[in-house]
Specification:
The protein is α/β, with parallel strands linked by helices and 222 residues long. It has a single domain, classed as Rossmann fold, CATH 3.40.50. Helix content is 35%, strand content 21%. It has 6 helices and 7 strands. It has a 7-stranded mixed sheet, sandwiched between helices. β3 and β4 form a beta hairpin. α1 packs across α6 and α2 packs across α6. The protein is globular. The N terminus is likely disordered. Belongs to the TRAFAC class TrmE-Era-EngA-EngB-Septin-like GTPase superfamily. EngB GTPase family. Pfam families: MMR_HSR1. InterPro entries: G_ENGB_dom, GTP-bd, GTP-bd_ribosome_bio_YsxC, P-loop_NTPase, Small_GTP-bd.
Length: 222
C-alpha cells in the first residue's frame, strides 16, 4: 500500500520539497532540552512543530524515523512516562525545532499528574507564538478514540492548526486501514483547526515518512 493511495486530491506530492526535507533531516538533529514547566522553555527564536498523541501511539518511533536516527527520541514500554516537553533542533544553522509533547490518555495516572499535564500542554499551545503546526498522532489500529477527540477540542480552542497522522499502518490489513483513514478524515472535517488531509505512516516500514518530512518543513515556513 502506497502513501499516495490516500492523497485523494487533497495534497499534491512536492518532489522538490521532499528532497529538500530529506537532505535537511539527514543533517544535524540534536536534543536541546526538556521543559517540565513553561519557565524552562527555550527562547522563541525558531519555528516549532509539535507532536502529540496517546501514550504508546508510536510518537518516539515516528520522530526517530523522520530524523533517520535510531534513538533521537527514546521509546518507552511504560505509557505516560514522559511528562515534559522535549525540544530537538533541526539544521545547522538552526532551521526549526521539533517538540515532543507528553503523551495523554494515561488511565492509571494520579489526578495531580493529569492536571499538571493538562496545564502544561494547554498553556504551551495557547501561548507559544513560534508554534507553527501540531501533528496529532492516532494509532491506525484504533482510530480516533475519545481521548484523541478531547485533544482535538483542546487544539481547536487554542486555535492551533494541526495535521492528523495515522501511525502503525503496517499493523492492520489494507481494507481496515482504508476504513480507518476514511473515518479519521471525516472526523477531521468536523474540527476547525484540523488540516483536511490525513497522513498514513509506518515508522517500521517507512510508509509516508518522506511526505511527512516535507509537510513538517513546509509548515515550519508558515
Amino acid at each position: 500500500m502506497d502513501a499516495q493511495d490516500y492523497l485523494g486530491g487533497k495534497e499534491e506530492r512536492d518532489e522538490a520539497l521532499i528532497e529538500e526535507a530529506r537532505k535537511l533531516f539527514s543533517g544535524p538533529v540534536t536534543f536541546l532540552k526538556s521543559a517540565p514547566d513553561l519557565k524552562f522553555l527555550p527562547d522563541p527564536t525558531a519555528p516549532e512543530i509539535a507532536f502529540c498523541g496517546r501514550s504508546n501511539v508510536g510518537k518516539s518511533s515516528l520522530l526517530n524515523a523522520l530524523t533517520g536516527r535510531k534513538a533521537i527520541a527514546r521509546t518507552s514500554v511504560t505509557p505516560g512516562r514522559t511528562q515534559e516537553l522535549n525540544f530537538f533542533e533541526v539544521g545547522e544553522p538552526l532551521n526549526f525545532r521539533l517538540v515532543d509533547m507528553p503523551g495523554y490518555g494515561f488511565a492509571k495516572a494520579p489526578l495531580a499528574v493529569v492536571e499538571k499535564w493538562r496545564r502544561l500542554v494547554r498553556d504551551y499551545l495557547r501561548g507559544r507564538v513560534v508554534l507553527k503546526r501540531n501533528l496529532l498522532l492516532v494509532d491506525s489500529r484504533h482510530g480516533v478514540k475519545a481521548v484523541d477527540a478531547e485533544m482535538m477540542k483542546m487544539l481547536d480552542e487554542a486555535a492551533v492548526g494541526y495535521r492528523i497522522v495515522l501511525t502503525k499502518a503496517d499493523k492492520i490489513k489494507a481494507t481496515e486501514l482504508e476504513k480507518v483513514h476514511a473515518e479519521t478524515l471525516a472526523e477531521a472535517r468536523k474540527h476547525p483547526a484540523a488540516f483536511p488531509f490525513v497522513h498514513v505512516t509506518s515508522s517500521e516500514k517507512g510508509l509516508g515518512i518522506a511526505e511527512l518530512r516535507a509537510a513538517v518543513l513546509g509548515d515550519s515556513r508558515l
